[in-house]
């Protein structure tokens, strides 16, 4: 219970702190300068990498390592195609984001 309350406390403190920090820093830099574009690009790449890791390793690995998919090659093939189709669709949507 103590650990959960500590995590709730840290989350409730860091979220508003991050928002305030972002608002404060947005007034200090030019959005079109090369440095700010590189920083924003690196931060976006890091968050995209973390989301991909969470989706592929933590979420999909459990499903793909289950006995239902391991014993049925046709279902496993459909599952791989669905994952690739979904990743491709998200990549295409990222063009407009």
Automatic annotation (TrEMBL):
Predominant subcellular localization, coarse grouping: membrane
Q: Where in the cell is it found?
A: Membrane
Q: What InterPro entries does the entry give?
A: ZIP
**Which keywords fit this entry according to its UniProt record?**
Membrane, Transmembrane, Transmembrane helix
Q: Which GO terms describe its molecular function?
A: zinc ion transmembrane transporter activity
Q: Which residues cross the membrane?
A: 38-57, 78-96
Q: One Pfam family this chain carries?
A: Zip
A GO cellular component annotation in the UniProt record: plasma membrane
Q: What is its membrane topology?
A: Multi-pass membrane protein
Extract the PANTHER family matched here. ZINC TRANSPORTER 7 (PTHR11040:SF41), ZINC/IRON TRANSPORTER (PTHR11040)
This chain belongs to the protein called: Uncharacterized protein
Query: What species is this protein from?
Result: Solanum verrucosum
């Amino acid at each position: 219970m103590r650990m959960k309350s500590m995590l709730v406390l840290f989350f409730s403190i860091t979220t508003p702190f991050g928002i305030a920090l972002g608002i404060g820093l947005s007034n200090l830099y030019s959005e079109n300068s090369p440095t700010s574009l590189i920083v924003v690009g690196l931060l976006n790449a890091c968050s995209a990498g973390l989301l991909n890791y969470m989706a592929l390793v933590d979420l999909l690995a459990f499903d793909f390592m289950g006995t239902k998919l391991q014993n049925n090659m046709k279902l496993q093939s459909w599952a791989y195609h669905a994952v690739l189709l979904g990743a491709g669709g998200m990549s295409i949507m990222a063009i407009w984001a």
